[in-house]
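Private note to self, pasted from the team thread so I don't lose it. C-alpha cells:
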C-alpha cells in the first residue's frame, strides 16, 4: 500500500512539474515579438550632426503654418540685439526676478515658441533648451548706449543671399556651427527672421545639401606673456 502511494506521488509530482513547465513556456510565447536589432539610441550618428534632427518632429507642422507677416522679425532687429554676430542676445523684455537660474520658466515660452500677447511678438525658439541656466549668458537690457566712448566695433555679419555657387543651388552655411547645430530653431516657424525663413523645413537633413562655407582661417600668433619678472 505504501509503495503505491509512493508511485502515485511521484507521478503527481511529475504531472505538476509538466504543468508548471508548460504554462511557463506558453506565457513566454505570448510575450511581445522580439527581434534582436539595436534600439534607435544605439544607432551611430555623427555626434556633431545629431542636433540637426532635434526639431525635425515638427517639420511638417512648420511647413503647414501660415506666415504671419505682421509679426515677422527682420535681420536688422536680430543683429541689433546682439553685441556682435553670434553673441548671446540680450533679453528685450521685462523679466521677473524669480525667473531666475536653473528653472524652466524661460522655456515655457522659448522651448517651442508661440505668440505672446503681452509682448506682441512670437517667442524665438531657443536652439539650446538643455542649457537651463539661461541668465548665465542672457542678460536684461539696462541701457541702449555705452557710458563712455570705446573703440569696440561690431564685426560685420556674414552676408545673406550670396552664398550659393549658382543661382538656385543650396547656399553654403556662412556661419559657424557651434551652438547653431539645431537649424530649424532659427530657420523655421513664425519667430524665424524673415530673410532666413525657409520654405523647406520638411527636408530635415539640412547638412545633406548645405555645407559649411570654406573660409580662410588665419593662424593667431603664439601668445607670449610679457612678464619679464618671472624667469
Ligand atoms: C511670457 C513668455 C516669455 C517668457 C516667460 C520669457 N520670454 Fe524671452 N521672449 C519672449 C518673446 C515674445 C520674445 C520676443 C520679443 C520681441 O521680439 O520683442 C522674447 C525674446 C527673448 C530674447 C531675444 C531673442 C533674440 O533673438 O533677440 C531672449 C534672449 C530671451 N527672450 C530670453 C529669455 C529668458 C532668459 C527668459 C527667462 C528669464 C525669458 N526670455 C522668458 C517671451 C518670453
Ligand atoms: C552658454 C551660454 C548660453 C546659455 C546658458 C543660454 N544661451 Fe541662449 N544663446 C547663447 C548664444 C551665444 C546665442 C546666439 C547664438 C547665435 O546667434 O549663434 C543664443 C541665442 C538664444 C536665442 C535666440 C534664438 C533666435 O532665433 O534668435 C534665444 C531665444 C535663447 N538663446 C534663449 C535661451 C534660453 C531660454 C536659455 C535657457 C534655457 C538660454 N538661451 C541659455 C548662449 C546661451
Ligand atoms: C542661432 C540661430 C541659427 C541657427 C541655429 C542656424 N542658423 Fe543658419 N543663419 C543664421 C543667421 C543669423 C544667418 C545670417 C548670416 C549670419 O548672421 O551668420 C544664417 C544664415 C544661413 C544660411 C545662408 C542663407 C543665405 O541666403 O545666404 C544658410 C544656408 C544657413 N544659415 C543654414 C543653416 C543650417 C544648415 C543650420 C543647421 C546646421 C543653421 N543654419 C543653423 C542663424 C542660425
Ligand atoms: C535637398 C537639398 C536641401 C536640403 C536637404 C535642405 N535645403 Fe535649404 N536650400 C536648398 C536649395 C536648393 C536652396 C536654394 C533655393 C533657391 O535659391 O531658390 C536652399 C535654400 C536655403 C536657405 C536660403 C534661404 C532660402 O529659403 O532661399 C536656407 C537658410 C536654407 N536653405 C536652410 C535649410 C535648412 C535649415 C534645412 C534643413 C531643414 C535645409 N535648408 C535643407 C536645398 C536644400
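Design output:
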Amino acid at each position: 500500500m505504501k509503495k503505491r502511494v509512493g508511485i502515485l506521488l511521484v507521478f503527481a509530482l511529475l504531472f505538476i512539474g509538466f504543468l508548471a513547465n508548460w504554462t511557463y513556456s506558453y506565457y513566454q510565447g505570448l510575450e511581445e515579438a522580439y527581434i534582436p536589432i539595436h534600439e534607435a539610441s544605439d544607432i551611430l550618428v555623427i555626434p556633431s550632426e545629431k542636433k540637426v534632427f532635434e526639431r525635425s518632429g515638427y517639420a511638417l507642422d512648420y511647413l503647414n503654418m501660415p506666415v504671419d507677416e505682421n509679426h515677422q522679425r527682420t535681420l536688422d532687429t536680430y543683429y541689433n540685439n546682439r553685441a556682435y554676430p553670434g553673441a548671446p542676445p540680450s533679453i528685450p523684455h521685462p523679466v521677473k526676478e524669480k525667473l531666475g537660474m536653473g528653472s524652466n520658466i524661460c522655456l515655457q515660452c522659448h522651448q517651442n515658441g508661440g505668440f505672446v500677447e503681452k509682448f506682441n511678438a512670437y517667442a524665438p525658439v531657443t536652439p539650446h533648451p538643455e542649457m537651463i541656466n539661461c541668465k548665465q549668458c542672457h542678460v536684461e537690457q539696462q541701457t541702449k548706449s555705452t557710458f563712455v566712448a570705446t573703440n569696440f566695433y561690431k564685426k560685420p555679419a556674414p552676408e545673406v543671399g550670396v552664398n550659393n555657387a549658382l543661382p538656385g543651388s543650396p547656399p553654403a552655411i556662412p556661419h559657424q556651427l557651434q551652438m547653431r547645430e539645431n537649424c530649424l530653431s532659427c530657420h523655421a516657424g513664425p519667430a524665424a527672421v524673415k530673410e532666413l525663413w525657409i520654405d523647406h523645413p520638411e527636408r530635415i537633413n539640412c547638412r545633406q545639401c548645405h555645407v559649411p562655407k570654406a573660409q580662410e582661417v588665419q593662424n593667431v600668433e603664439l601668445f607670449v606673456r610679457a612678464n619679464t619678472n618671472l624667469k
